[in-house]
Amino acid sequence: MGRIHIDLFMTLDGVAQAPGGPEEDPSDGFAFGGWQAPLIDEVDGEQIDAGMVGMDALLLGRRTYDIFAGYWPHQEGGQDDGIARLFNRLPKYVASREARELGWANSTQLGPDLPEAVRALRERHSQIHVIGSLDLVQTLLADALFDQLNLWVYPITLGTGKRVFADGTVPSSLRLLGPATTSPAGTVHLRYERIDGTPATGDMGDPR
Q1: Which segments constitute the Bacterial bifunctional deaminase-reductase C-terminal domain (predicted)?
Q2: Which CATH architecture has domain 3-187?
């Protein structure tokens, strides 16, 4: 059975909107597009590359797919050649409520039943990664349709923007997979595995 990985870059206050550039997602007047760029360092890059080892499919939301489709097909032979070649050859699955024209090679639109589509992907692939795609991520978190959450937490707060854990996140338990690692710029890389069931509660004053 394959695993669904969610890979996200977020601020300390949980914002994950438009880390890559000013035009990535300016919806709702978001003024901080590209907030990640000044904080990227060599350690970040090595961690991101390592996280792609074994990836054999991408699952993307509509907006992220459009951004990737307009960028990665033109990057082979450039600075990001390795990632470009990987993304261009991988099967790509797009979650969208509207019919889409998918011009990027090896792209397929999922059907309207997302849980059923995710189950089918798990049967077909071993390591499916969701990158960005915040609207899709909200559904995956709410319906427990993921296995691993990979977070890069950057040392800034923005106070506005779309958040990873938005309203409607369901109570869930996670297990840390190995120690957190920190980059020179102060970014903390965390890898969590989802655990079935809801979080336990207790009493700090109970001597037991």
Answers
A1: 5-177
A2: 3-Layer(aba) Sandwich (3.40)
